[in-house]
Amino acid sequence: MNPVETTLTQYIDQHRPQQEAFLAELVKVPSDNPPGDCAAHGKRAKELLEGLGFKVEAHKVPEDKVRAAGMISATNLLVRKTFGNGGPTIAMNAHGDVVPPGLGWTKDPYGGEIADSEHGPVMFGRGVAVSKSDFATYAYAVLALQEAEKQGAKLNGTVELQFTYDEETGGDIGPKFLLDEGLTKPDYAISAGFSYGITSAPNGCLHVEVTVKGKQGHAAMPHTGVDAIEAATHILQAIYGLRAELATRKSKVLGIDTATLNVGLIKGGINTNVVPDLVTFRVDRRMIPEEIGFDAEGELRAVVEKAAKERPGIEVKVERIILAEPLSELPGVEKLIGALKQRAESVFGVEIPVQGVPLYTDARHYTSRGIPTVLYGAGPRTLMEARGHNSDENLRLNDLNRATKVVALALSDLMA
Fold this sequence. Notes:
Distance between the termini: 15 Å
Order of helices and strands: HHHEHEEEEHEHEEEEHEEEHEHEHEHEH
Radius of gyration: 23 Å
Strand order of the largest sheet: 1-2-6-3-7-16
Structural class: alpha/beta
Shape: elongated
Helix content: 25-40%
Largest sheet: 6 strands, mixed
Strand content: 15-25%
């Protein structure tokens, strides 16, 4: 190793206990979304970052924008560190909002508990892998770079920590807010990772709510009403027919299989003895990278409307909730990928793939501005292995240590 590499890796190893304690403190503050009351976590994260010596900008999102996102409160945090003169600006974004814990936990989801395993120490807690871990990854990578600069490293560039709170609802009041307000104009972006691999092409996602309206009537005289549940069942059969067709649309991107569709929520009816007059359900449609520019919403609407016409007396409405376009690699991203891949393979001692994931992420807000972006952080070998969005979510702390080294080393290459 050269002196800069030695300084970076030694700093990260020496401060491993502090980094793990920092992550545990983040896990201990609930930031479930829904309901999306995330101000307390933002406040605690700001205190912790300031305790590390960072100057932290806190950008509270206006209440009308928060409500429009279906949340209660959110404050975005921004830290800027400039090294030398000139050079690229590199944003690193992780989200502090998490899905609610749900059932089945054997550990306290807000405990930050560490237990031994065959893979070394493991920390448990909601968000410990997705993606509070990368608050710690990115922050300590920058601290290591600051130490290298003190030791004489010649670095030129600016690194920004962008910690936001609405990934679970689409990112409009997080990264998009920072970009729209002109608070950041990076040349590159790194978003929180989900696996050892470098993710360059996440899926897109469409959420729609379908409302099926009929007419209520007495259950003893069903012919006096128009049964919304019966009609919704017919429409759902058509939607599931589309799902079967989507399963034949295969992606050529490593890590992504096919286009998918799922009906995740449904409600309706008045009482057992009443012909139901209203049913609503929500559909999740994932678009593969090859579907960039394809009107997935129009396709789904056509299926719903055709099926509804086959049920006289029924009115149907399709309302978009989220539309996140799939991503592909932008020109210039190869420099970012190259730095991360070289360093990751050296640190982990295995081949590191460049791949896609069947998820949608905040990364799309950067790529939509033409900013070359990848996902990389303290991820596990697979998201399922870390039980992300599942009970007993966990993170191997050896992976946190190694990912922090990879990020610090790659940033030093980009700013050399």
